From TrEMBL:
Residues 20-242 form the Histidine kinase domain. It comes from the Bacteria. This is histidine kinase. It comes from Gemmatimonas groenlandica. It is found in: Membrane. Coiled coil: none annotated.
Length: 260
């Protein structure tokens, strides 16, 4: 529990910093990107110069990516609130991963239960994509990436431990890979903003911090189990929309009635 408190304090600090800086930073980068593009496309310049301009543009685009991530962290309390079907969101995200990932990463989807969720569809899709990207990065020579959604048969103790609501069913979305896994030392820090073991041009260390923030904002929880050299499973737990709970709960269980 102590770790959770520290975690959210760090997220808040990053969020505040980001709110003040990322927006202006983005405007500066837009200038750099625009002028680099003009140089890159100027036919009267030598090819070597235009190549250098292209490199400047690429680096600035990376910076823009990073500041977008920071803005996502900063805007944690302005998320959208909509009802959506989990299954279509997950399928779309998996399709995107299938189109863009190395073919040696085999992506399997098992959508056993995929209920209606209330929250920000695009933030949750982004969170899932982040987990899939991490899974891919953990398997540089290829492997199996399995995404599963199912209603979680959770006991009270688990819900209490992770501060999950007790009045609605919980759906779990897990992302498993057969990759390198994590050491205990890495596991301990993975949710911290800016913690990364990847090369500077590859990782920002904001992926899991963003996923954590998004899941928490949806009154959910996240767990990781990992074994070095074997693989990792990251599971997000999300409360189902209470508006539609009656459709999911068998009639024999009136105790789970809709409360908000
Ligand atoms: P980034 O991906 O930019 O490094 P993240 O916050 O998403 O930032 O991840 C932090 C670190 O956690 C990674 O650098 C990596 O060491 C570790 N990690 C995350 N997901 C996995 C995974 N599926 N398998 C192995 N290591 C992982």
């Amino acid at each position: 529990l102590e770790r959770e408190v520290t975690q959210s304090t760090k997220l808040e600090a990053v969020g505040q910093l980001a709110g003040g800086v990322a927006h202006d930073f983005n405007n500066l980068l837009a200038g750099i990107i625009g002028y680099a593009e003009l140089l890159e496309e100027n036919p009267s310049l030598a090819t070597a110069v235009r190549d250098d301009a292209a490199s400047i543009k690429r680096a600035a685009l990376k910076g823009a990516d990073l500041s977008r991530s920071l803005l996502t962290l900063a805007r944690r309390n302005t998320r959208r609130d909509e009802l959506f079907e989990l299954e279509s969101m997950v399928r779309e995200t998996v399709d995107l991963a299938r189109r863009t990932f190395d073919r040696r990463v085999e992506i399997e989807l098992t959508a056993q239960d995929a209920p209606t969720i209330r929250g920000d569809r695009s933030l949750l899709s982004n969170a899932l994509l982040n987990l899939a990207v991490n899974a891919r990065d953990a398997m540089p020579d290829g492997g199996a990436l399995h995404i599963r959604t199912q209603l979680a048969p959770l006991d009270e103790a688990f819900r209490t431990q992770h501060a999950l609501p007790t009045d609605v069913p919980i759906v779990s979305i897990s992302v498993s890979d057969t990759g390198v896994g994590m050491s205990d030392a890495v596991l301990e820090h993975v949710f911290e903003p800016f913690f990364t073991t990847k090369a500077p041009d590859k990782g920002t260390g904001l992926g899991l911090a963003m996923v954590y923030g998004t899941v928490k904002d949806h009154r959910g929880a996240i767990t990781i189990s990992s074994a070095e050299g074997e693989g990792t499973t990251v599971t997000m737990y999300l409360p189902c929309a209470s508006d539609v709970v009656s459709a999911l709960v068998p009639r024999s269980q009136p105790a789970m009635a809709r409360t908000r």
